[in-house]
Every structure is written in C-alpha cells, then in structure tokens.
Automatic annotation (TrEMBL):
AB hydrolase-1 domain mapped to chain residues: 64-300
Domain of life: Bacteria
Organism: Tenacibaculum todarodis
Keyword RNA-binding part of the UniProt annotation: no
GO molecular function, one term: hydrolase activity
Record-given protein name: Alpha/beta hydrolase
Length: 313
C-alpha cells in the first residue's frame, strides 16, 4: 500500500512539474501594434502588397542597395551594414512575409516562386529598377532567383550563405519539428525562449556574441501574431532544392556575383558555397573566418568590408 502511495505521489509530482514547465513556455501572440512601438523607428514605412502591410526601411541616397534577410530573421539583421552604407547609398530592406513586423501571407504560399514575385512587387512599389542586390540564406535564394529572371535590374549580386542547393547536413531540428503533426501544433503555443536561443547558437559560431537583447528580438518577432503558423507553413513548403531547373538557373546568371560564406556555417555548409561558385559563371567566393550562418550579423565589420570592396572595384 505504501509503495502504491509513493508511486502515486511521484506521478503527481512529475505531472505538476510538466505542467509548470509547459506553462512557463506558453506564450501568447504579440500584436503588431505592440511590436511596432519597440521595433519600428522613424525610418520604418509600411506598404500594402498582397493584402499584407509590409514593413521596410528606406534610408540614405545614392546607388540603391537592397538587403534581404533569411528564415526566422528580420530587417534588423542588417542593422550594422545599413548604418554604414546609408552614408553613400540608398539602403532598402524589408521584413519578408512570415517574418518580422510584416507577418503572414494571407494565401499561405511560401514557395520561392511566390517570394520572388513578392520581391518584384516590392521593388516596383519602391520604384527601384537598378540596384546592388544582397540576400542571406532564404533571402539569398530569393535574390538569385530574381536575378536570373531580371538580370538587367541587378548591377551586382551578393549572396551571403545562400540557400538553393541541397546540403550534406541534416535539416535543423526546428524545421523537422515544424513539419511533424501534433508537435507543430504545440509550437503555436509553446515557444520557449530557450528554443530561440538554441537556434541562434546554431547559426552563430561564437556564442559570446549573442546578447540577451538579440535573443529577445528574435523571440518577440517569432511571437508576432501569425508568424508561428506562417513558420510552420513555410517549413512544409517543398523548395525543390537542387533539381535540374534550379541548377540551370544558377548557371544562367551572368551578373557579377560575390559569395560571402561563414567558414563554420552549420545550416548551409561551406561546401554549398563552393558548389554554388562552381555553377555560377561570374562569381567569386570569399570565406569569413570564425563565423557561422549570418556573418553580416555575427561578423559585421569583416563581411561589410568584403561587400564594399566588391561594389567599389
């Protein structure tokens, strides 16, 4: 009888512990209006595209530079680059659909084709027909697809750890989770700060560069109303990585292209950069030492210098 009582108390103790653990990881959506107060500034603008209020910033004057972020990020990932480049250039960056203050796309289509169409519409609204085009990760994939279709609009192309080719690495666990039924439903409510921190640690090589403010920004942007569902929908999208049409598209890009790659990228490894460089007829690959998947954020000075040398020469 006593053994049964002990088992029962142990069961209840574990159950209560799990409830408290889950409760501490449950976060409600944050309204875009609340986030605007913290993450929009005097340079922030909003333009309607496909029913979305797209958040973007347009700063400086001169030859335009368009910066496109990657999965889970926002236009803030380019803060350092933008702060320096706007002194001599017009710098335009946006929150892609599914991310940042822009939020979910009403049609739920997160294919590269739809993202490329979105970029085309955005550039038209911003009255941009000639630019230096820069993209990181997913943003890089969008950038090179756009360039393949609109080569005359891109003066020079810069791809920072860009996606678009299959990797020899297993898919990051958060994408696997987003594709798993039931588990992905929990993600709509249970989104621990620790999960976001772990993700950032995966894309950074040097964890000492990860600040609490950085984690907070990524976490709060993930909690923007609609973004968690959008992340799940995007993760389930088949991007057809590495099919023949994809490879031929890369080969067709004649624009001068700089490939900037973090030496220790755990999401899209350096081998992908080398293969992309071998496919593109007018490209140059430069490796950023001691850096991961987001060198423009983790190694901003080094990566910006590479970019400036490229566009100025």
């Amino acid at each position: 009888m006593k053994k049964n009582s002990k088992k029962k108390y142990l069961f209840y103790a574990i159950l209560i512990g799990l409830i408290l653990l889950i409760k501490g990881a449950v976060y409600s959506d944050i309204s875009v209006e609340v986030l605007k107060e913290k993450y929009a500034n005097e340079h922030s603008k909003f333009v309607e595209i496909d029913g979305m209020q797209v958040h973007y910033r347009d700063e400086g004057k001169g030859m335009p530079i368009v910066l496109i972020h990657g999965t889970g990020a926002s236009l803030h990932t380019w803060d350092y680059w933008a702060s320096k480049l706007k002194e001599k250039h017009r710098v335009v960056r946006m929150d892609l659909p599914a991310f940042g203050l822009t939020g979910a796309n009403s049609n739920g289509d997160y294919s590269i084709e739809n993202y490329t169409n979105f970029l085309t519409k955005f550039l038209h609204k911003a009255e941009l027909d000639s630019m230096y085009l820069v993209g990181n990760s997913l943003g890089g994939n969008i950038a090179w697809n756009f360039t393949a279709e609109n080569p005359e609009a891109v003066k020079k192309l810069v791809l920072v750890d860009a996606s678009g080719l299959p990797t020899n690495k297993p898919q990051p666990w958060i994408f696997k989770m987003a594709k798993t039924p039931i588990v992905n439903s929990m993600f709509l409510y249970v989104t621990p700060r620790a999960v976001i921190k772990d993700n950032i640690e995966q894309v950074y090589e040097d964890d000492s560069k990860i600040s609490e403010d950085l984690i907070t920004r990524y976490h709060e942007m993930a909690l923007r109303e609609g973004n968690r569902k959008a992340f799940i929908d995007r993760a389930k999208t088949d991007f057809k990585l590495g099919d023949n049409s994809n490879l031929e598209k890369l080969k067709s890009i004649k624009n001068k292209t700089l490939l900037i790659w973090g030496e220790n990228d755990n999401w899209i490894p350096l081998d992908n950069g080398k293969r992309m460089d071998s496919l593109m007829p007018n490209s140059k690959l430069i490796i950023v030492k001691n850096s991961g998947h987001v060198p423009m954020e983790e190694s901003p000075k080094e990566s910006l210098l590479l970019f400036e040398d490229f566009i100025n020469n």
